[in-house]
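task queued by scheduler; priority normal; single chain, no ligands, no partner chains; default sampling; output format set to structure tokens
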Amino acid sequence: MKKIFTLLCTSLIVLLMFVGPGNSVKAANPILVPDLFSCGCEDHGIYPITGSEKNKIVAELLSSDAFKTQKSLLNKDYTFKGVNEVQVAKVKGANIVMVAVPFFKKSGTLEFAMFTNGESKGMAFPPTEEDHNH
């Protein structure tokens, strides 16, 4: 009797896991961090990098001394947005890799720590709509 009760309870739990309603995973709001390199910049030779190549570049940057130094300088006034929002682009015909790492300022504005070939190049504001009208 005990085994039958256990079997029925287990079956009920499994059935509810597959049939019952659940919380679906919600994607992050893409409006918070604008896409810097997908603005038609291909006309200027700038191509966004995605997938495993992007992941490799981001991993190398985040483990570099240049990023750690920049992040420690920004810790007082900025909050690191996270690795999922980092953007990477390459310049065609040149050996240049640009990485934009988003940080939120305490005031709520978004700024990007810019790195070119692994070297910090300072902070940049996100582009406005006028900046994208070529």
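post-processing summary
- The chain has four helices and six strands.
- Residues 2-19 form the longest helix (18 residues).
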